[in-house]
């Protein structure tokens, strides 16, 4: 079985969700993942000293490049530069539409950050982000396991978590595991052991 996943936002949250999904590929389950990013990540502004195992002082573009390398070692993902303007359809046949972009997928992850959200088609889901110390920051409303609408999940600081890389990664892990669980119809986690890939 192959599931098509569109991830909107290719910063740390979008890439973390992709990494967890890629790591869950097995003999029964495969993924086609497209990541669309318009290049306005908060991560572009950082130098990181407070994330375990990240090299001290690593900057945003290097975090993105290294994480892409790690994802691609598990699954070939397609990266698209651009902006998604509209989402339509239902779980299993969701459409993400932008200029010269028209992707159909089973699931969508919104890893769009806290600066703005103007994607049409999802109703009035934009709320004030009340855990950030800057004005006009937003989050997206969801229910249950970060589900904005059936088949559409929010990840990263767009979900309303504190604006820290580790918090964005945690939220992105939850979105990916919620999708894995939805596919299987039971709780799924993506765990390895020292011998699981040997
Ligand atoms: C100056 C600064 C310093 C920071 N320092 C630290 C620090 O030291 N330690 C720490 O832990 N955290 C730090 N942070 C916070 C950290 O950068 C964020 O928590 C983290 O980047 C959030 O990741 P994210 O993937 O959720 O969102 P983002 O990094 O903001 O990424 C969202 C992505 O979605 C894309 N996007 C949005 N809408 C669309 C669309 N419609 N179509 C296509 N793409 C879209 C954007 O272009 C962007 O690339 C800092 C932040 C700033 C601004």
CATH class: Alpha Beta
CATH A-level architecture? 3-Layer(bba) Sandwich
Oligomeric status: single chain
Assign the structural class, choosing from mainly alpha, mainly beta, alpha/beta, alpha+beta, or little secondary structure: alpha/beta
- CATH fold-level label: FAD/NAD(P)-binding domain
Shape: globular
Strand count, sense and barrel status of the largest sheet are: 6 strands, mixed
What does this 3D model show about the protein?
This protein has a single domain (2-184), classed as FAD/NAD(P)-binding domain. The chain starts with a strand and ends in a 14-residue tail after the last helix. The protein contains three helices and 13 strands. It is globular and about 50 Å long. 23% of the residues lie in helices and 29% in strands. Strands 5-2-1-9-13-12 form a six-stranded mixed beta sheet, with helices on one face. It has a three-stranded antiparallel beta sheet with strand order 6-7-8, with no helix packed on it. By secondary structure, it is an alpha/beta fold. It has helices at residues 12-23, 60-72, 165-184; strands at residues 2-8, 30-37, 47-48, 58-59, 78-81, 84-90, 93-98, 101-105, 107-110, 126-128, 138-140, 147-149, 152-154. The protein binds flavin-adenine dinucleotide (FAD). Residues 8-14, 36-43, 45-46, 48, 50-51, 83-84, 111-113, 119, 156-158, 163-166, 168 line the site of flavin-adenine dinucleotide.
């Amino acid at each position: 079985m192959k599931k098509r996943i569109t991830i909107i936002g290719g910063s740390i949250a979008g890439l973390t969700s992709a990494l967890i999904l890629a790591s869950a590929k097995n003999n029964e389950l495969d993924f086609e993942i497209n990541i669309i990013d318009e290049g306005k990540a908060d991560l572009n502004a950082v130098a990181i000293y407070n994330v375990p195992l990240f090299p001290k002082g690593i900057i945003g573009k290097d975090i993105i490049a290294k994480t892409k390398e790690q994802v691609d070692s598990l699954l070939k993902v397609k990266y698209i530069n651009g902006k998604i303007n509209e989402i339509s359809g239902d779980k299993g046949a969701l459409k993400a539409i932008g200029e010269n972009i028209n992707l159909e997928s089973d699931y969508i992850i919104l890893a769009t950050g806290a600066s703005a959200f103007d994607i049409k088609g999802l109703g009035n889901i934009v709320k004030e982000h009340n855990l950030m110390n800057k004005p006009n920051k937003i989050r997206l409303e969801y229910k249950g396991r970060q589900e904005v609408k059936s088949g559409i999940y929010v990840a990263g600081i767009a979900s309303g978590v504190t604006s820290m890389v580790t918090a964005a990664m945690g939220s992105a892990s939850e979105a990916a595991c919620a999708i894995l669980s939805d596919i299987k119809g039971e709780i799924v986690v993506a765990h390895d052991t020292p011998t699981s890939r040997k």
